[in-house]
């Protein structure tokens, strides 16, 4: 099960890496000779990703909502491939619903997946990074944390928490060699965003009209930013939230 340590330069873990932004990030890592472990729930998507990415990639089917099993998961990855150099917390869920109709359970479910699971996985991976006093953790936020977007209260709360956690983690971990940063994607053309926008021309026009660059991004735009923050080129950068959004967060 061990990969040849003389081949890849580093080891990365990418959650939600079998599709969308996560796949683009994994692809960028693999292309740059970083052995990448993709964690996801959909076995069919994981199989397709493995086929596309080849020998420099391993996939693990796992539901990050199972907090109690996360320590064993990280131990398994470490035993098989070595301690991670990079962790990208990309997995997340969203739900569009009128504010007053969101149940406590629905709110908790999104916080559980998008915040608590990110914390638990980061803690376990960081323990191994601390042992070697080096590592880079990159969280993925959203425009929802920059300004109000209708009908996504739980998602907005979760992504605002991610940005606060990024700063807190950076202060706790950076003195011991681990950099922690966050990328806040704007409107990126993925299957998920297509579902949200294609049937809603008004919403799509609004997105484009307040994006100074006048277009949506592509998954590779996010992958490039994540790769930069993970790399030694960003060795003096920690605790930042980098919007990759064509200017959307400052647009009017």
Q: Architecture in CATH?
A: 3-Layer(aba) Sandwich
Q: Record the strand order, biggest sheet.
A: 3-2-1-4-5-6-7
Query: In which range does the helix fraction lie?
Result: 40-55%
Average pLDDT over all residues: 94
- Domain count: 1
CATH superfamily, please? NAD(P)-binding Rossmann-like Domain
Name of the CATH first level: Alpha Beta
Number of helices: 8
Outline: globular
Class based on secondary structure composition and strand pairing: alpha/beta
Cα distance, first to last residue?
52 Å
Largest sheet: 7 strands, parallel
Annotated CATH topology: Rossmann fold
Low-pLDDT residue spans: 1-6
Topology as a string of helices (H) and strands (E) = EHEHEHEHEHEHHHE
Quantity of strands, as a count: 7
Rounded radius of gyration (Å): 18 Å
Percent strand equals 15-25%
Question: Would you mind describing this structure in some detail?
Answer:
The protein is of the alpha/beta class and 252 residues long. It has a single domain, classed as NAD(P)-binding Rossmann-like Domain (Rossmann fold, 3-Layer(aba) Sandwich). The chain contains 8 helices and 7 strands, in the order βαβαβαβαβαβαααβ. Strands 3-2-1-4-5-6-7 form a 7-stranded parallel beta sheet, with helices on both faces. β2, α2 and β3 form a beta-alpha-beta unit. The longest helix is centred in the middle third of the chain and has 29 residues. It is globular. The termini are far apart.
């Amino acid at each position: 099960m061990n990969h040849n340590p003389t081949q890849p330069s580093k080891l990365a873990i990418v959650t939600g890496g079998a599709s969308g932004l996560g796949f683009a990030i994994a692809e960028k890592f693999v292309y740059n000779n970083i052995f990448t472990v993709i964690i996801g729930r959909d076995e069919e998507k994981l199989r397709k990703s493995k086929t596309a990415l080849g020998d420099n990639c391993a996939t693990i089917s796992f539901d990050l909502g199972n907090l109690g099993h996360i320590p064993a998961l990280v131990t398994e990855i470490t035993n098989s491939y070595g301690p991670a150099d990079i962790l990208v917390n990309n997995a997340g869920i969203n739900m569009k619903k009128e504010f007053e109709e969101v149940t406590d359970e629905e709110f908790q479910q999104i916080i559980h997946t998008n915040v608590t699971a990110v914390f638990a996985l980061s803690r376990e991976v960081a323990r191994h990074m601390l042992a070697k006093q080096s590592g880079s953790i990159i969280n993925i936020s959203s425009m929802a944390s920059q300004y109000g977007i209708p009908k996504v209260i739980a998602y907005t709360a979760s992504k605002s928490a991610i940005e606060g956690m990024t700063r807190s983690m950076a202060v706790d971990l950076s003195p011991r060699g681990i950099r922690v940063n966050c990328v806040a994607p704007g409107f990126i053309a993925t299957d998920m965003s297509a579902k949200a926008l294609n049937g809603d021309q008004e919403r799509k026009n609004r997105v484009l009209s307040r994006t100074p660059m006048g277009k949506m991004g592509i998954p590779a735009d996010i992958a490039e930013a994540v790769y930069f923050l993970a790399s030694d080129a960003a060795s003096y950068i920690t605790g930042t939230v980098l919007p990759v959004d064509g200017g959307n967060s400052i647009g009017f």
